[in-house]
Amino acid sequence: MSQVEKAQEFARLHKKGEPLILFNIWDAGSAKAVTEAGAKALATGSWSVAAANGFGDGQAIPLSLLAVTARLISVTSPLPLSVDFEGGYAVEPEEVAANVEKIMDHGAVGINFEDQVIGGEGVHPAEIQAARIRAIREMADRREMPLFINARTDLFLQESDTAHHHILLDDAYRRADAFAEAGASGFFAPGLVEPELIGALCERSPLPVNIMVRPATPDNETMAKLGVSRISYGPAPYRSVMGMLKSEAEAIYRPT
């Protein structure tokens, strides 16, 4: 498939009630393994890609290295690739769009783009984040690329007490509306774990909803019934693999 065809296929895979499952990867090797396991598409996780290269999360990994990683994955696997692009490595809309274009040039057909203030506190106001999304969409349209912009809100991740998450729903609805109007393709709400709230968001959102698997989230079958269109695993696969590697190494270096 061409890059445009991959982007079109990636969008088609987002089905309410029949979610796209993304077991997040971090390099060409993990991409090959997940592809051979039967995945329909690939997505990186920012934390995992950074950690695999010796960096912390929060755009610490250089953009140039992230772009090379995307290229290596895209030439290793024939599947559509979405790149977790955090806050776009810039604040101003035009600069963000230019950075996204670099990732597109390296094979990505989708991005995660979050409203968290990288290196600061809280989230960008909805209208500012919408302007950033609009700039990305306009750039992609000029390139005739149906880029899948998965607009992520960090509202729920930044509130550790899940008992307070219902208070944030109205803000999440407003953001979903604003991001959809600006040209987003999906709405990502990591940190949201309560079934009732997930179902409410899926019912209200004008965009396909993405939920990240955490210990407290419902199982995948339940999330499908709640109307989720995309399920991702975030840093969990990387942590699992590294935990196994460390355990096996300790058995050699520190035998009991």
TrEMBL record:
InterPro entries: ICL/PEPM, Pyrv/PenolPyrv_kinase-like_dom, Pyrv_kinase-like_dom_sf. It comes from the Bacteria. Pfam families: PEP_mutase. The keyword Lipoprotein does not apply. GO terms for molecular function: lyase activity. The keyword Transferase does not apply. Gene3D superfamilies: Phosphoenolpyruvate-binding domains. Signal peptide: none annotated. Keywords: Lyase, Pyruvate. PANTHER family: CARBOXYPHOSPHONOENOLPYRUVATE PHOSPHONOMUTASE-LIKE PROTEIN (AFU_ORTHOLOGUE AFUA_5G07230), PHOSPHOENOLPYRUVATE CARBOXYLASE. This is Isocitrate lyase/phosphoenolpyruvate mutase family protein. It comes from Rhizobium lusitanum.
